[in-house]
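quick one, 163 residues, struct below
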Amino acid sequence: CGARLVIEVLVPDFNAREDCLKTVLGARPDVFNHNTETIERLHPPVRPQGNYRRSLDVLRRAKRLAPSITPKSGLMVGLGERVDEVKETLRDLRAAGCEILTLGQYLRPSAEHLPVAEYVHPDIFKEYERHALALGFKAAACGPFVRSSYQAEEVLAGAQFRS
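---
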């Protein structure tokens, strides 16, 4: 059929264990996805098991260890972050070598999870997308219904177009 299979992996931060990172990268996926999830200030309540700086380091190390593999990360908004904090996070992600971004609206999955602080207007998502592309992301999917795997094939194709 002539189609090429593209493999994207979504990984945890492995508690900064480089041996785990090398194992995943050794499988040679096309896209290495580690979701940062939120801004640095909100990381403790949103991802208590994670660490913002460690997440950035995972992306940075993945890019260093396997330069041909495309790093990707995702964020949720609507948890109480400010626009300037999201833009700072986008700068941090780019500085870590991240090339593809997904950014979507946080929706509370259950009563045990954090409540939604704000439903972000679609125009703000467009602003985030413009900002991400201006920073040099090869692709950015930003919108209320965007999730980590949102139109992954199309987003990757857009990134390859910008290469």
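The chain has a mean pLDDT of 91.
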